[in-house]
Amino acid sequence: MRRFVIIIVLFLISVIAGAQTISGPWKGELQVGVTKLAIVFRFQDAGCTMDSPDQGAKDLPGELLFISADSVSVSQKSMGVTFSGKLRDGAIVGRFSQRGLTVPLILTPGEVVRNRPQTPSEPFPYETEEVSFTNGGANLVGTLTYPEGWNGRRKVPVAIMVTGSGTQNRDEELYGHKPFLVIADYLARNGIATLRYDDRGAGASTGDVVNATTYDYMEDAAAGLEFLRSKGKFKKVGVIGHSEGGSIALMLGARKKVDFLVSLAGPGVQGDSILLLQNLNALRKAGYPDVRLTKEYIRAQIKAQKNPWLDYFIDYDPLPDIKKVCCPAMILNGDRDTQVDAEVNFQTIVKNLPLNRSGRYFASKRTMVKLYPSLNHLFQECETGQAEEYPEIEETINPEVLSDIASWINKL
Question: Residue 390 has what DSSP assignment?
């Protein structure tokens, strides 16, 4: 889903020499609704940088409007962002604005530190290679990870990894979690190669983001699959997709582009239905369970935005593609997913996958479906599954999910 994340612009500020007391790292938390995003400013003698660590974003430039010993004001015109704050009792108290939305933002000294014990660190016991492939005007750059102990003389299975919605880097980084890096590392240690890449417009990749739709991202992934096949090093070539990437995995399966697919929390119903469920969940959480909301109202609000991605999303019905998936498919979700409601989406996918001639089993005898208890949209052990829990959960992805994926691919 078009992640709850709002765009955070990172600034480069020229600090005026003088009696500067606003220095060093300053951290804050931007909250819009239930969404919280950490922000870090680092004021130095030569200037200032600002990070959004939850999104893996760093050092984007902005414009300094004013700075003194106890006040600062910055702007980023292309995104319509401003922030102004004043030093009070050891904190910079201010307001963050973006295109008509204004929220309070308080910065206090220090860095954002979160414990992510599953994130692997170098040196790795396997080889990686920086690679690139193209789809039209998009140049996609990523990391090809080979299995531990691979000597190039035997062919191994490989999976291209496709992120969820929103412009994300190759690790699908969010709130300090790097789920695709964790998955790639685990699979490499279990005999499976992977290719994970920066989305167009993210990291080292280029391409039109403004007009891109899910179909365009599917074609990006298809180009990556062709690249993998062209190397001649791999046996079976498949796809692992999360959220929107799970939908793309099913699209690729329907078009016979892959030898196998893994759909992690992939949508099973049309986008307007998904947005309706998301908004009803938000209303219930906010204490308004009886508010009447319809798909027609949501569609009208979306169409008014004239956003190509959203227009495609609310109109795309995945059922025709799901009904054409005959390759081995692994369909996974957590039963506490509040972004892609498992009760609706997971069950719809399972009920519509093709069956064999007897009508008793899936068309592919290798197909596996599994719903995990107590896991959220990110496949983390959770309490409620609500998005505000994500930053506080230390687990990046449940170990059982990792084990199941590796075991299933190796048995194909």
Answer: G
Residue whose entry in the numeric block shows the structure tokens 């390759």: 327
Closest CA to 73 of 116, 44, 105, 100: 105
Nearest residue to 346 via CA among 243, 265, 244, 262: 265
What is residue 78's DSSP assignment? G
Q: How far is CA 27 from the centre of its chain?
A: 23
Q: Could you list the pLDDT tens digit for every one of the 412 residues in the chain? A: 444 333 333 333 333 333 346 777 888 888 866 677 888 877 765 567 777 777 666 666 667 777 778 887 777 665 677 888 999 998 999 998 877 788 899 999 888 888 999 999 999 999 999 999 999 999 999 999 999 999 888 899 999 999 999 899 999 999 889 999 999 999 999 999 999 999 999 999 999 999 999 999 999 999 999 999 999 999 999 999 999 999 999 999 999 999 999 999 999 999 999 999 999 988 888 888 888 899 999 999 999 999 999 999 999 999 999 999 999 999 999 999 999 999 999 999 999 999 999 888 999 999 999 999 999 999 999 999 998 899 889 999 999 999 999 999 999 9
Local structure of 227: helix, strand or coil: helix
* Rounded CA separation 59/295 (Å): 39
- How far separated are the first and last CA of the chain, in Å rounded? 30
User: Which of 108, 153, 150, 146 lies closest to 129, judged by CA?
Assistant: 146
The residue type at 383: E
What are phi and psi for residue 143, nearest 5 degrees?
-120, 120
Cα(112)–Cα(34) distance, integer angstroms:
19
12 class by beta-carbon count within 10 Å (0-12 exposed, 13-18 middle, 19+ buried): middle
Which of 64, 92, 171 is CA-nearest to residue 128?
A: 171
Among 85, 68, 84, residue whose Cα is nearest residue 76 = 84
The structure tokens 């075991």 sit at: 407
Pairing of strands 71-76, 81-88: antiparallel
Domains and their CATH numbers in the chain: 12-109 (2.40.128), 128-269+317-411 (3.40.50.1820)
